[in-house]
Amino acid sequence: MENKAPLKFEAPEHILVPLFVSGNSVNLEQALENLIETAKTPEGRLNLASVKFLPIVLEFTRCQISSSNHHLLILSLKLLRNLCAAEILNQNCFIEEDGVDVVARAFDLISYKTNSGDKIIEIVRFGLELLGNVCGGGEEHQAAVWFRLFPVVFEDIAGIREKKTSDVLSMVIYNCCNGSKDIMRQLSGVQGLHIVAEIVRTASRVVPGEDWLFLLLDKLCLEESCFLPLFLSLTTPGDLEKNDHLKGTDEICTLETEFILSSLCESFDEYGNKLNLSKEFALSVLRILKRVVKVVDFFWRPQSELPTGILAIDVLGYSINLLRNICKQDSLNIRIEESGTIINSLLASGLLDLLIDLLRELDPPSIIKKSIPQEDTSMQLKAGPYIGFRRDVVAVIAYCSHGMKHVQDEIRQKDAILLLLQQCVTDEDDELLRKYGIWAVRNLLVGNKENQEILAAMVIQGSADVPALADLGFQLKLDPYTGRAKLVNMLRD
Ligand SMILES: *[C@@H]1O[C@H](CO)[C@@H](O)[C@H](O)[C@H]1NC(C)=O
After folding, report:
1. Rounded CA gap, 78 and 128, in Å?
2. Per-residue pLDDT tens for 424-453?
3. Which residues contact ligand 1 via a Cβ below 6 A?
4. How confident is the model over 157-175, as pLDDT tens digits?
5. Are 419 and 359 in contact (CB under 8 A)?
6. Whose CA is nearest to atom 9 of ligand 1?
7. 77 close to 117: Cβ distance less than 8 angstroms
């Protein structure tokens, strides 16, 4: 009823007059635009703070909410946002005057059942940006925002499924959680993860942009052990990929799960050893890998590196990459007494068996294959589902055996030394294979007499062509006492 009759009344006079005066115009819109400009600078914000201007703008905002004047509401939220950017006086004033409640009421305007329209999206966006700025004020501010909006209002906003609002929502949630154990605990609960899952659903369907969601996922997945519950909540049956290159398909391969895995991979590239990894996270990734190898078609000729655009292959590739990064970080752990603890739990859960089996089932690299007489070229051979797969598997093995005698021994007992030697070649598709292969074999030899003897015997018998011996840092020498050949570590001896 009221909606149809636009009210001329914009605000009472005691609100309008200061806006006209400070905004330096008798045109309301112009005055607001001028104030928005003024509040862009630190001095401008401070000046307006010293005359206690923020309560006037808040009051004006309230009036626009009740009269549903969306255009003026957007301008006033924008002004509040600028006022609260890194200006503690305004941030404090905003909390004292219950500004969070005003913004929450503005969010009530979202009409979820109907098409929300661009204006509403703008209102939500500026409102969230404002709250994000307010959170900068400290713990009290973070709590005021969180406890007013979590979970209902956040759920409603996440439900809009628009990139424009979803990105800023991640920002606000991150800013609320940053440094607060209490809030983090709530976010890690069922309702909190449901909101994050909605944000991931939106983000996984658009071009990635803002980094706030990545920061949020890092915190939740890598540090707070929320990875598995979040991951599983995004494996929705019915949202399956149909693809000829898969033997079957599995609900763990969705756009959303691929998104989470790839974004965590990126975090490793960016933050590397600053991440504080949990054992649960590592074991969960292994669980996913074990499951996805069952649905990937290894006879599929690899067309490209990651991402291939085939969900199951990408989920496979990103889980192996995550394991490589996890093992790398664990084997290089600065706290020596803790180094290898995550790797050991992964090994206890069958990581090494899985990797060696994967490698064994592949074709040898093309250069080695050419040297083997080909009777049955008609037979289909496994090439690995994406370019770089072989290298990634070898890299995980290399990190696991780095300085770990029991792993070196286990690889020998599994008769896999020759298998790894075969990876020390230049592969036309995968330039890094040789580097990782050499490094893996080197890690098998250092400090392990039995492994050195086996390799020396292979060289003598010519059963293995080891052109890379010098690259491995070893040399074959005759032992003058026993008359037997042995490997000498050139870098150490
Ligand atoms: C999280 O909080 C810390 C400490 O208050 C701050 O230094 C850091 O910049 C914040 N992180 C982000 C991404 O804003």
Report:
1. 10
2. 888 777 888 989 999 999 999 999 999 988
3. 178-179, 215
4. 999 888 889 999 999 999 9
5. yes
6. 178
7. no
